[in-house]
Amino acid sequence: MKRFFAVFCIMLCFLTVGCAGGTEANPPPGGGSEPPDVSEGVLSVSDVFQYFGYAPIEIETKMDGKRVYDLDLYYDIIDPTVCEIENGRVNGLKVGSTDVYAQTVGGQEVKFEVDIRDSGAFIYDVEVRTREEDYKNKANSPVNPTLFVGDSFFDERNFWRSFYDDFEGLNCFTVGISGSQTSHWYIAKERLITAFAPKNIVIHIGTNDINDNSITLTVDGYYNKITAFLDMILQSYPAANVYYFGIENRNGAAGGKNPYSETVTEMIKTKYVRDKFTYLDTPAIFNANPNKYVSTDNIHPSVEGYKVYTQMLKEVVDF
């Protein structure tokens, strides 16, 4: 009876202005031409999980197995105390799970599950909370900072130890998390990027994506994974200028996937052109003289390497 009433409601709402329970059309990442007609086909919706208190998760919808972004759907949440759905995104209200029925205007219906997990299950939950405390405890915490986002290369506690000296008086703050990949920042972005309302966003990410041996992608696959993340940053924070350091080679035994890094970095350098995006070509410098610019751990910048980072940024960033 409940879903029968929901179908009636969706038909009614499409005859009027809109439907509060449905989603608005979601454009594909990066924009593009008008989407094809997907009013017919077999609907499928992937199960969704979110860590409670972290970024809402976009619902992945497909027609005949192909990802689509422009479907008007009504969502019937069986236990509405678990989550809410707005603009095609799931936001948890408490830890738990519920079935959800997605319905098209034509009456096609599919079921999927939403699982809201405890925040502590997120691998970097402690790091996120630590970074939030770092900001609160920092004297003269910057407002609208130049925010450094990404992996261990921006971790001032263990690697870039001179960070706050290098950018003293320039309203900078770093939330680098050692080991992080692009997928982790989709989860953490609301708390560690949105919350700081950055004027500029400086990014070092991708080395852990490529060098994670449990992930095997083609060169195009790595390029698409990293640039989809960059697209998300540019779309989510349109007022910010975005600066991206290329993926430097690793040395010695740590450099087994350098051919991927080199090719993907060259593709980003030459193909990825966007407004308010600046590529910073540290790989051209580091890879030419790794003994000087890469530290003895064979991965992170040396003291001289971080001087290159600092100089490059001071030449192009309006702090």
Helix % is 25-40%
End-to-end span in angstroms?
59 Å
Main sheet: which strands, in order across? 12-11-13-14-15
Q: What is the mean pLDDT?
A: 89
List the helices and strands in order.
Answer: HEEEEEEEEEEHEHEHEHHEHEHHH
> Count of helical segments?
10
- Overall morphology: globular
Instruction: Specify Rg, calculated over alpha carbons.
Output: 22 Å
Compact description:
With 319 residues, this protein is an alpha/beta fold. The protein has 10 helices and 15 strands. Strand 9 and strand 10 (109-117) form a beta hairpin.
Task: Please explain how this structure is put together.
This protein has helices at residues 2-15, 125-137, 163-166, 182-192, 207-211, 219-236, 258-271, 282-286, 290-293, 303-316, and strands at 43-45, 48-51, 57-58, 61-63, 66-68, 74-77, 83-86, 89-92, 96-103, 109-117, 146-150, 172-174, 200-204, 241-245, 277-280. It has 319 residues and is α/β, with parallel strands linked by helices. Helix 3 links the parallel strand 11 and strand 12. Helix 4 (182-192) runs parallel beside helix 6 and helix 6 (219-236) crosses helix 7 (258-271).
Notable traits:
single chain; 319 residues; alpha/beta; five-stranded parallel beta sheet; four-stranded mixed beta sheet; 10 helices; 15 strands; 21% strand
Sequence-ordered SSE layout with sheet pairings:
Elements: H1 2-15, E1 43-45, E2 48-51, E3 57-58, E4 61-63, E5 66-68, E6 74-77, E7 83-86, E8 89-92, E9 96-103, E10 109-117, H2 125-137, E11 146-150, H3 163-166, E12 172-174, H4 182-192, E13 200-204, H5 207-211, H6 219-236, E14 241-245, H7 258-271, E15 277-280, H8 282-286, H9 290-293, H10 303-316
Parallel strand pairs: 2-10, 11-12, 11-13, 13-14, 14-15
Antiparallel strand pairs: 1-4, 3-8, 4-5, 6-9, 7-8, 9-10
